[in-house]
């Protein structure tokens, strides 16, 4: 114990100078009505995201207890159809550090509040590419990977495997269409082409017939090496593997899935994180849980290193080259200074194993290989961070 305290004194003199520091964090969640799907086998956990934040709080308190830093986490749920901006305004009266679990319109409404101008907000739920580009906000950072980061990871894998013949089946929901657009953009980025596409536009009342429809739908795709699927609601894609007209691997929203986190990630100390989350939640850690954990831990790491709970000081440090977060993914995580996105490897996971983790070998970058995933600085139209 004495050695640990001595080590912390050597590493964090500023933090020790700020003993007695109070760090209140508010987790603000917009509840949404989920559209009907063909299967109800995998309902969304009621505590999705929130428990990741709670685990991050526990981790922050471990270090904070030695430094005299006191962390607290308040959870606020906005009911379906409720006024998220009003809830954010009320939350900002109590803390300038908000973890936001909400769709894009709600995030923009919160970030636009006068009270939020000097606050520090974290997006842990929306993968929207525009939020990292022309719709970015200087007070809004992103710990959830964008759709483009995930699709870039998948295209790196396809290129490595030399699976150059690509086909795509996408759903009609806006989230499906957004991920399908990211897949097209990533394919073009890496010199690949999605030669043929189909849309799944059957209703949610055909559960018994879905498996019979898949071979007929996929027959029209012609010859291909890899079948991509954009089904972010987890509606129909579960019926694709082993049921297509041609025997082909499936990837995207089903099969080989690029994601922020998966229960099969166990290297780099991840098994320990998985175990602690399981003990806390009684279930597996999912991508939005990881994003919320990373947001709370980012705050804790920045407070530890700066000795401050001021949102402006923390934001400046988070966007600097000095910040690193140990994220159990094999390399340090950091924020892109041009759009606030957390750089991170993307696991490519099957239901029972980690197949690979992007960026894959051979995909190089002049600054960080992690910037081969998602919008690089020349590609982003974000001007708010300049």
From TrEMBL:
Q: Where is the signal peptide?
A: 1-17
Under the heading InterPro entries, the entry gives: ABC_transptr_sub-bd_PQQ (IPR022478), BCAA_transport (IPR051010), Peripla_BP_I (IPR028082)
Q: Which UniProt keywords apply?
A: Amino-acid transport, Signal, Transport
Domain of life assignment = Bacteria
Protein name according to UniProt: ABC transporter substrate-binding protein
